[in-house]
Inverse folding.
């Protein structure tokens, strides 16, 4: 549906047991207050969250998918960056 | 329609609870009529959510009314098998949705009242009503916030939205007085500490309404003639149509379940 007066907002919810806000989706709303209300009505209906952030989608700077070769492939060959070559002592437990 | 209407023994407490249950059911049904038709998906969800809040309140209140009455009735019978003249809701709440501004204005006038009402009812000596009030108060508080924000944006929005919002305020204003009316049967419950006197909420209600209406650059009507009748079953022509849709399934297939 065309909503010329309603910019897009990205919604982040912090769940009951989560520490960080996680991106859950987007919505249209005329301003920040209405975006927060709409986020509450759309994304927390089943008790998903304890805190909501809404961010104008236009405020997000995204990487360019066509540059993913340059951006991400160089990391693929650097397996030594994964801390998998160390023996973790039993006493440390779950990390 | 084939299922006959029930009769209800309307003692003061049964009547009092039924009135509030009918308020919640009728407004909840009105909001549900927007499902799939709202101006935007976000509001479609918001109105359905508020409708479900009200339906939940209605269920608890009908269940309690049936229990107090102590006859063969239950929440379904009270909702589906009473005629229009047996309904006790406020006239305001049965008014048709109209456009989005009218629906939000109706919601705003009522939520500004019900928010105060349920908060005050948390102190009721009737522990069931106090418990229902505690749950309903949070829901009403959000309904007030939601509708208030929209009143401001519609009133202080475009020329068209302002015109529509003002028209809704003017048309619905005469239905607001009924919220504060008390009859003899309620007076006894107020004296017993079971009900609260709605008159004690009027000043605060008017202050909230006036503040939001002013921020919305709208005007409250000067006239103070108020319509009434819903509490004794004298309704506008709109409720019969609403009930014919709401009750058609149970009237046609009594006791149907799925």
């Amino acid at each position: 549906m065309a909503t010329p007066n309603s910019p897009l907002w990205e919604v982040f919810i912090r769940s009951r047991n989560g520490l960080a806000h996680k991106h859950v989706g987007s919505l249209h709303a005329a301003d920040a207050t209405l975006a927060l209300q709409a986020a509450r009505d759309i994304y927390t209906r089943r008790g998903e969250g304890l805190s909501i952030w809404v961010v104008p989608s236009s405020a997000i700077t995204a990487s360019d998918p066509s540059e993913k070769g340059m951006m991400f492939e160089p990391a693929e060959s650097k397996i030594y960056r994964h801390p998998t070559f160390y023996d973790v002592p039993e006493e440390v437990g779950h990390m | 329609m084939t299922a006959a209407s029930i009769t209800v023994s309307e003692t003061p407490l049964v009547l009092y609870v039924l009135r509030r249950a009918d308020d919640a059911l009728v407004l909840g049904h009105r909001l549900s009529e927007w499902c799939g038709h709202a101006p935007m998906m976000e509001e479609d969800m918001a109105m359905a959510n508020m409708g479900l809040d009200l339906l939940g309140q209605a269920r608890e209140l009908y269940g309690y009314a049936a229990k107090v009455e102590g006859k063969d009735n239950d929440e379904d019978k009270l909702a589906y098998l009473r005629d229009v003249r047996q309904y006790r809701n406020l006239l305001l709440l049965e008014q048709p949705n109209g456009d989005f501004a009218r629906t939000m204005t109706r919601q705003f006038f009522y939520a500004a009242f019900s928010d105060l009402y349920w908060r005050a009812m948390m102190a009721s000596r009737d522990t069931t009503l106090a418990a229902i009030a505690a749950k309903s108060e949070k829901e009403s508080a959000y309904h007030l916030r939601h509708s208030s924000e929209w009143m401001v944006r519609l009133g202080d929005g475009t020329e068209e939205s302002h015109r529509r919002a003002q028209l809704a305020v003017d048309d619905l204003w005469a239905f607001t007085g009924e919220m504060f009316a008390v009859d003899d049967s309620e007076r006894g419950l107020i004296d017993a500490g079971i009900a609260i006197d709605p008159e004690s909420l009027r000043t605060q209600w008017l202050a909230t309404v006036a503040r939001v209406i002013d921020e919305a650059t709208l005007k409250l009507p000067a006239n103070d003639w108020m319509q009434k009748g819903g509490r004794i079953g004298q309704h506008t022509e709109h409720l019969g149509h609403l009930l014919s849709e709401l009750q058609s399934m149970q009237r046609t297939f009594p006791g149907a379940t799925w």
User: Anything to note?
Assistant: The radius of gyration of chain B is 18 Å.
